[in-house]
Amino acid sequence: MSSLKELQDLIQEKYGIPASELDPQASMREKGLDSLALAEFIFEIEDKFGIEVPDDNPNIDTLAELAVLVDKVRAAKVA
Q1: What's the DSSP call for residue 4?
Q2: In angstroms, what CA-CA distances link 58 with 35, 39, 51, 69, 79?
């Protein structure tokens, strides 16, 4: 279960960045998302998935890293 595709769709919907331009391994900051935009994106993720993303991961910088974290939180919620 990977949230990557869902996160790509959400970031495209919220910021207008096409999924084809989102390298999951590249820094989201390189696509113009500053720390405030990333925080807002985390809130969007929490609302969409009904989860609480722990804030003890301040160094999450890529969509792939964020997807791994979201997958872990979702799996823990189900367990």
Answers
A1: H
A2: 10, 10, 17, 12, 25
Given a contact cutoff of 8 angstroms between Cβ atoms, the answer to whether 69 and 53 are in contact is yes
Cα 44 to Cα 40: distance, rounded to the nearest angstrom: 6
Q: How far is CA 37 from CA 32, 34, 43, 51, 56, in A?
A: 9, 5, 10, 19, 18
- Note the pLDDT tens digit of each residue in 25-75: 999 888 888 888 888 999 999 999 999 988 777 678 899 999 999 999 999
Two tokens at 51? 């989860």
Give which of 1, 19, 3 is closest to 64, Cα–Cα.
3
Count CB-CB contacts under 10 A for residue 25: 10
